Task: inverse folding
């Protein structure tokens, strides 16, 4: 089981993302986008492709856009190919924005891009912990998980989806995660439970196979129990909720 | 007018919400624009539009759709167009160019591009002017206001032009400066800069008459005239910013100066007593280094960026934070930045100070604009760089109206050994190539170092502002830390900060002997820079490396493969000479000794200042609960949650004690990160400054700062033997004897308390002239000096994560105050807001303090403490309330007062060295084994109800926690 974790041009969560994969049993490597463009065939050596969080190109022209265009220009076929195999792709935060801008998620019309991530309703960057529930548990990334407590950290995390597309997203069960309130009910746009005003409290989307997951919250930052806010007041096991996502990837190949 | 085209993309929902709210006007729309230097055919227009926008959320404006699209929002009547001034770094344009070049490859070559922000408004002309003032900074941006119809017309006809920097392309000829002139004319050179033939002088050099005379003497000995480059270089190298002349000067009877005697002296004394390996690298490098564990070193550096932040708050703050990040990259062989810290000392954002740099013109930016810009600058700098920013604070006082203080700090980590060699040691060897990596050089920040050492007055140059580009730096940093460093491909490294190449190369060359630089090799942002400008430019995001010739090709290749530019610009030599050439003409040739040590040493005298007594205020009669609400909602105590949530403190997955603590989210005074996956050893961070105490007694002020910064780490669970501190002195009028007296006193306290606490200073920085000289709105001349401010930053190692404490008590816990409370209300938050009678200023008794801290540490390791919070601003009353808000649990406080102290004195005195703790009932016996009865007071218990109850004999006062939380979480007016 090998994971390729992408880096370069301002991506910045690659080290902790790789670490999370390694702890659950993957072998992996951080590979710079330019090296991957030089030698795209190395993708064949990997079962998981992870685009971590960060600030690729400083969010210029919209978060994730510039990196998505770089991938689209240089690696689009190879990555599409990857997504059509029995392999997994995850994009976290900026990685989520990149996957959305690439159109790999939700990938219903095979046309780029179908969804947009726009500025948070609060108008400011939001670094805070949220609760999400799993809506699509047929995605291998999200199997057997009900809720997760994870941090978000973004300026542009509000999913904007045209009405018709939203209907098909729902019909195809492609909503991965949704923000919930303290009573485990949907946040209904209410801040701070829904930190960005996302439509239908959407925090993550998948493609139709469920093997490509684009999620705004950061599972790698909720990996150990001591990552959880006020962990000293709680009785906790060794790992935080983020661990479950990475374990699911392992189970998929086990 | 050149035939240009612009692509405008409009957000369907929009990013104008905050602007609309601020101006109470719903008819505002922001548009992103991109100007091209050439026309685009329809096919390219469509293709490029698609590359730089998202058609789900944005609409591209075309000649056909523009009327329809815009009229669907409002009947706009004005357009504000904001562009960067020619030559100012335009990061967005750089990215767009890269996307287009990558995608269109050879079919679309050579074009210029600029980004614009366009604001459409329906409103009156006055509103438009106001909005444009708030949205742009004339120092770096041009603002044009058009009637909407005219703008539309221009848009349809492509009637826009792109402005490039056009500097006169003169052939450079060596310029010699005659210093054999009168003292008056000599001092003009120092104050206003070198004379030019057809232009105004170059701008201040910050050289005093004595320094210029020393230069004159040197050149008369070597029998030639100095060049302009030599004078500019000496001005940079000898600047207060670089040489810290005041700290190294003889002052009264202190021959060696206050730095050697009190700051370095304290550390030397401590090291002598300790005999351990804790201190690794002190004072000599870009940051100070201490040991985290047997394999890793951590370093810490805190910088100020005050003057640039006064002129361009966003730009000043972002370059402040990314600049101090480079100090970590330049620590030893290059440490990876793992945490940022911040501290802002600002004027009240809700007040209008109306200050002018010149009579009736050149206004200071409004206080709220400065505050917002600074907060945003560090947000963008930190978040974009992928470095968590967990630790910080903000303090407000009117005396910062002329100059805000912006402290930016970074913690870095580096393995102790790299390929068997000690990583904190570095040495540029003779023959090593001088390599400049990162961004290009422009006119940015010319005269930054000399200027930040001067008071802010009408002659402050505007080119002293730099623009930060965190992504360029991130790319460069990744190559250095992840690829080059661990293969030992370079022998030394340092950052380009103040003074640019002249400082970085000048400093590094001390390791080899000297240097030869060929300035024409330096890559420029645009043509037409004079050699002296290239040499001292403070363009950001650059590191200088000393690379053995055998590795140069490899190193450059690595940088280029990651989209980073790296250029050979010279070599280090053994001979102790500083030599700079420009197209083979030698324009600088100085002895290294003279360059670094030739400046005249100051001889300072101090005098005892008149102490300004706090004006007696009438105590406002109100209930205790009311007073608590007033204090909680005051700007210096109120929660800074809105900053914590916009600064990413979770990136790198290291945050284990977060800035917001407890379910009730109280803004903590210490935070902790765990930087290694494989080791529990963690880092606790805090900081403290008490400018409000300074005028009463600077010695005690410094004592309080050290005590609080140290205490916060003890309370968080750090090992007392592994705490180090950093000093940042921000002073005012440091040429006045009474200010120097205060400085000397504060420095003396630094020695006394650091030695008492056995906590070494590992790094520091000073900024000595934080004064504003200008005019008020009536045209009357005013001088506003900051109160002397000493920021102490503390960094400590936490051995086990189980030692980390929390601030939330549990039901049934007993509450205790460690340390005794004295009547020390003078200069407190209480005295400012409620009023005071007769009181004293807080004084730290280090013996008592240490007893408390050692006992606390012992008890904490034995797991006797269930929760703890350091008592600081607002005293015990505020600490109690914060505990209740954080835990959402009620507390009963029984005010059994001892030592003839009143209720208000007990609750609001800012007596130092006290800790509020809670322990479980069954731990009381064990607690008493460690603490003597005289060392603590039991004040109540945690009830778990929804109120805080204070009992004063038979009188009971109650307040609901949710009400206190509301006061504590109020918005700061004006922000």
Result:
């Amino acid at each position: 089981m090998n994971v390729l974790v992408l880096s370069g041009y301002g991506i910045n969560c690659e080290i902790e993302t790789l670490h999370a994969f390694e702890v659950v049993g993957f072998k992996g490597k951080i590979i710079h986008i330019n090296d991957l463009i030089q030698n795209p065939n190395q993708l064949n050596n990997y079962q998981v492709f992870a685009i971590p969080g960060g600030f690729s190109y400083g969010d210029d022209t919209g978060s994730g856009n510039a990196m998505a265009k770089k991938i689209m220009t240089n690696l689009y076929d190879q990555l599409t190919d990857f997504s059509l195999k029995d392999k997994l792709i995850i994009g976290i935060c900026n990685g989520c924005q990149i996957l959305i801008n690439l159109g790999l998620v939700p990938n219903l019309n095979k046309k780029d891009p179908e969804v947009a991530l726009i500025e948070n309703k609060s108008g400011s960057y939001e670094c805070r912990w949220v609760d999400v529930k799993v809506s699509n548990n047929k995605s291998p990334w999200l199997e057997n998980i009900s809720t997760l407590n994870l941090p978000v950290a973004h300026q542009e995390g509000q999913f904007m989806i045209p009405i018709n597309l939203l209907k098909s997203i729902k019909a195809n069960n492609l909503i991965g995660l949704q923000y919930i309130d303290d009573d485990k009910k949907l946040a209904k746009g209410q801040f701070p439970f829904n930190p960005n005003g996302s439509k239908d409290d959407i925090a993550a989307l998948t493609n139709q196979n469920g093997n490509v997951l684009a999620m705004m919250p950061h599972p790698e930052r909720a990996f150990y129990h001591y990552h959880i806010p006020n962990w000293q007041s709680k009785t906790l096991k060794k790992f935080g909720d983020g661990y479950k996502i990475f374990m699911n990837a392992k189970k998929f190949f086990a | 007018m050149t035939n240009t085209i612009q692509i405008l993309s409009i957000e369907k929902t929009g990013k104008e919400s905050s602007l609309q709210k601020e101006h109470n006007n719903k008819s505002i729309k922001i548009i992103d624009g991109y100007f091209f230097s050439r026309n685009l055919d329809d096919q390219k227009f469509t293709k490029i539009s698609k590359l730089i926008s998202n058609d789900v959320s944005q609409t591209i404006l075309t000649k056909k759709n523009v009327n329809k699209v815009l009229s669907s929002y409002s009947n706009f009547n004005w357009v504000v167009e904001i562009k960067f001034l020619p030559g100012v770094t335009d990061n967005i344009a750089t990215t767009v160019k890269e996307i287009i070049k990558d995608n269109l490859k050879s079919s679309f070559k050579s074009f210029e591009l600029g980004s614009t922000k366009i604001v459409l408004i329906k409103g009156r002309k006055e509103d438009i002017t106001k909005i444009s003032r708030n949205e742009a900074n004339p120092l770096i941006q041009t603002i044009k206001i058009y009637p909407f119809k005219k703008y539309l017309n221009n848009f349809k006809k492509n009637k826009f032009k792109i402005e490039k920097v056009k500097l006169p392309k003169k052939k450079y000829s060596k310029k010699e400066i005659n210093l054999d002139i009168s003292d008056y004319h000599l001092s003009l050179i120092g104050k206003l800069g070198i004379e030019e033939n057809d232009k105004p002088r170059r701008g201040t050099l910050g050289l005093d008459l004595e320094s210029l005379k020393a230069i004159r003497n040197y050149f008369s000995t070597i029998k030639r005239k100095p060049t302009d480059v030599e004078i500019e270089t000496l001005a940079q190298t000898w600047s207060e910013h670089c040489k810290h002349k005041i700290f190294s000067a003889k002052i009264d009877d202190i021959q060696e100066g206050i730095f050697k005697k009190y700051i370095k002296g304290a550390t030397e004394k401590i090291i002598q007593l300790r005999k351990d390996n804790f201190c690794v690298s002190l004072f000599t490098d870009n940051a100070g280094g201490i040991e985290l564990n047997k394999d890793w070193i951590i370093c810490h550096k805190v910088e100020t960026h005050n003057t640039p932040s006064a002129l361009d708050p966003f730009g000043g703050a972002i370059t402040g934070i990314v600049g101090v990040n480079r100090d970590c990259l330049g620590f030893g062989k290059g440490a990876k930045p793992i945490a940022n810290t911040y501290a802002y000392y600002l004027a009240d954002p809700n007040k209008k100070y109306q200050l002018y740099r010149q009579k009736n013109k050149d206004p200071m930016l409004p206080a709220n604009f400065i505050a917002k810009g600074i907060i945003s600058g560090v947000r963008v700098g930190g978040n974009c760089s992928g470095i968590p920013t967990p630790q910080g604070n903000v303090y407000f006082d009117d005396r910062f109206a002329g100059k805000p203080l912006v402290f930016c700090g970074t913690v870095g980590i580096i393995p102790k050994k790299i390929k068997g060699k000690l990583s904190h040691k570095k040495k540029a060897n003779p023959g090593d190539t001088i390599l400049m990596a990162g961004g290009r050089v422009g006119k940015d920040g010319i005269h930054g170092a000399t200027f930040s050492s001067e008071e802010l007055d009408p002659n402050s140059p505007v080119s002293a502002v730099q623009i930060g580009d965190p992504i360029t730096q991130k790319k460069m940093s990744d190559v250095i830390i992840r690829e080059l460093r661990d293969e030992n491909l370079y022998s030394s490294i340092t950052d380009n900060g103040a003074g640019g190449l002249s400082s970085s190369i000048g400093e590094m060359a001390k390791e080899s002997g000297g240097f030869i630089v060929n300035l024409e090799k330096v890559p420029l942002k645009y043509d037409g820079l004079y050699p002296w400008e290239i040499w001292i430019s403070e363009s950001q995001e650059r590191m200088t490396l000393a690379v053995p010739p055998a590795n140069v090709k490899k190193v450059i290749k690595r940088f280029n493969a990651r989209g980073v530019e790296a250029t050979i610009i010279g070599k280090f030599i053994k001979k102790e000479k500083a030599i700079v050439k420009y197209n083979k003409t030698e324009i600088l040739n100085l002895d290294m000794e003279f360059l670094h040590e030739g400046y005249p040493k100051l001889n300072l005298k101090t005098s005892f200042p008149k102490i300004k007594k706090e004006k007696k205020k009438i105590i406002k009669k109100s209930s205790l609960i009311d007073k608590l609400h007033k204090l909680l909602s005051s700007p210096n105590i109120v929660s800074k949650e809105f900053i914590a949530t916009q600064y990413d403190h979770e990136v790198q997955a290291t945050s284990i004690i977060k800035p917001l603590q407890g379910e009730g989210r109280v803004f903590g005074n210490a935070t902790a990160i765990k930087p290694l996956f494989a080791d529990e050893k963690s880092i606790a961070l805090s900081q403290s400054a008490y400018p409000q105490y300074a005028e009463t007694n600077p010695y005690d002020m410094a004592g309080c700062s050290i005590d609080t910064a140290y205490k916060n780490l003890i309370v968080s669970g750090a090992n007392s033997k592994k705490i180090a501190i950093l000093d940042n002195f921000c002073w005012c009028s440091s040429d006045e004897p009474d200010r120097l007296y205060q400085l000397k006193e504060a420095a003396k306290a630094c020695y006394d308390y650091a030695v008492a606490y056995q906590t070494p200073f590992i790094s520091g920085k000073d900024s000595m002239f934080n004064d504003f000289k200008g005019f008020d709105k009536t045209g009357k001349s005013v001088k506003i000096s900051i109160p002397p401010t000493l920021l102490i930053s503390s960094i400590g190692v936490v051995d086990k994560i189980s030692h980390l404490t929390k601030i939330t008590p549990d039901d049934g816990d007993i509450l205790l105050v460690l340390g005794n409370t004295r009547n020390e209300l003078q200069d407190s938050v209480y005295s400012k807001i409620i009023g005071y009678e007769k009181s004293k200023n807080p004084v730290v008794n280090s013996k008592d303090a240490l007893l408390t801290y050692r006992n606390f540490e012992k008890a904490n390791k034995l797991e006797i403490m269930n929760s703890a919070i350091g008592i600081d601003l607002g005293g015990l009353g505020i600490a109690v309330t914060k505990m209740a808000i954080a835990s959402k649990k009620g507390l009963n406080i029984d005010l059994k007062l001892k030592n003839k102290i009143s209720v208000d004195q007990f609750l609001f005195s800012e007596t130092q060295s006290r800790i509020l703790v809670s322990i479980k009932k069954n731990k009381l016996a064990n607690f008493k084994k460690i603490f003597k009865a005289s060392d603590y007071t039991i004040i109540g218990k945690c009830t778990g109800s929804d109120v805080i109850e204070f009992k004063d004999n038979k009188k009971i006062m109650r307040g609901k926690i949710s009400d206190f939380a509301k006061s504590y979480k109020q918005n700061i007016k004006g922000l």
User: Anything to note?
Assistant: DSSP finds six helices and eleven strands in chain A.
